[in-house]
Specification:
- The chain is 9% helix and 46% strand.
- A hairpin with a 3-residue loop joins strand 20 and strand 21.
- The radius of gyration is 24 Å and the shape is globular.
- With 365 residues, it is mainly beta.
- It is built from three helices and 30 strands.
């Protein structure tokens, strides 16, 4: 039996053209199915933790709980510097991974939230600058470093931090209280792991570096003229966004100068703000003028995700207020709502990937 006898449907022999058409259609369908990978948030993703930190870490996960900072006002009508804490309800909250059982544990407003050894570390500039820690229930609040309000990271019984503008990188020993200088220059801490501190210098050209905390060897990771917006790291490679591109830098433990080995993995973005890497996907905001009927020219954010392997870009939601940020915690993507007057977070919305909608967290009044 030849193929024309075999391909028989309803008693009618298929023509050569019809057979060819069916084969092409089958290949197309298979290709489409294989090329479409549903977006799914990966829980406990290392790169997401790094991304969250570089989005100022107002939200952090630990032991099936989520801790976050928020003010409870619709519109405070207060000035940014500083808001009157007697007139607004501000605090650090804790909730279940499901978003239920929201409880206020502190009257502070913290950022760079980190949970280490059953303690929450954070810093604030409101109402006064300082780096604090407290128990997970908010008790035993302790000021550790007065005046420190920029990036910090707790690592191996020490706090690495930049206290204020144009101050050097310092190390605070949690056992002895001794303070030493780590890098005698001003910049921003991006991450610390495996005895490396990843950081940037804010000089004429923004560059990424890492320094071995034991040998003090500094390696240049990035030194192009593109201005980076956000940094992430998955343990083997660094990712960062510029206004139009997402880059990857593969790392190894040899050599000092990594400049020139960047790979452009996502092109034609328009902002790359709040970049988060999770699994094989990137999430970020693109900046554009509003296409509303009023045609006001208002600047808005569109949320995109990109499949790194297939380099496919998908629009998730349009026309978000520019005053937003996002985090991935507890296997969910959260988008914040920021008050226009105080620039403080006044709400969190969980993004439903299935129906592309935002679901506001509900506080217990």
């Amino acid at each position: 039996m030849d193929i024309y006898q075999f391909l028989f449907i309803g008693g009618v022999h298929m023509s050569r053209k019809r057979i060819l058409f069916c084969l092409i259609l089958l290949v197309f369908c298979l290709t489409s199915c294989l090329s479409h990978v549903p977006v799914k948030i990966v829980k406990d993703d290392y790169a997401s933790k790094v991304s969250n930190y570089n989005n100022f870490s107002y939200m952090v996960e630990n032991d099936d709980k989520i801790y976050f900072s928020c003010i409870r006002v619709e519109d405070s009508h207060l000035q940014y510097n500083p808001p009157d804490f007697d007139k607004i309800d501000v605090g650090i909250y804790v909730m279940d991974l499901s978003g239920d059982n929201i409880e206020k544990i502190s009257n502070m407003y913290g950022r760079f939230l980190q949970v280490v050894n059953d303690k929450i570390y954070f810093n604030t500039w409101l109402p006064e600058k300082g780096l604090y820690r407290m128990n997970l229930d908010g008790s035993e609040l302790e000021l550790i470093i007065e005046g420190a309000w920029l990036e910090f990271y707790v690592y191996k019984d020490a706090i690495y931090y930049v206290s204020d503008m144009y101050q050097p990188f310092r190390r605070y020993d949690l056992k002895t209280g001794e303070i030493t200088t780590v890098i005698d220059d001003f910049g921003a801490i991006k991450w610390i792991d495996d005895d490396y501190i990843y950081f940037s210098y804010d000089h004429e050209i923004s560059s990424y570096y890492r320094m071995n905390l034991e040998t003090k060897e500094i390696q240049l990771l990035k030194g192009t003229e593109d201005i980076p917006h956000r940094f992430s790291y998955d343990g083997t490679a660094i990712y960062y966004s510029t206004f139009d591109t997402i880059y990857r830098i593969e790392l190894n433990n040899t050599g000092v100068d990594y400049n020139g080995v960047e790979e452009k993995i996502v092109h034609n973005i328009h902002g790359g703000y709040n970049l988060i890497r999770n699994g094989d996907f990137f999430y970020y905001f693109d900046l554009r003028s509003s296409d509303s009927v009023a045609n006001t020219g208002e600047i808005v954010y569109d949320l995109y995700c990109v499949d790194e392997k297939r380099r496919k870009k998908e629009l998730l939601i349009k026309n978000l207020d520019q005053r937003v940020s996002m985090y991935i915690v507890g296997g969910e993507l959260y988008i914040t709502q920021i008050d226009s007057n105080t620039s403080l977070i006044k709400g969190y919305h969980r993004f439903n990937l299935e129906n592309k909608t935002l679901e506001a967290l509900k506080f217990n009044d």
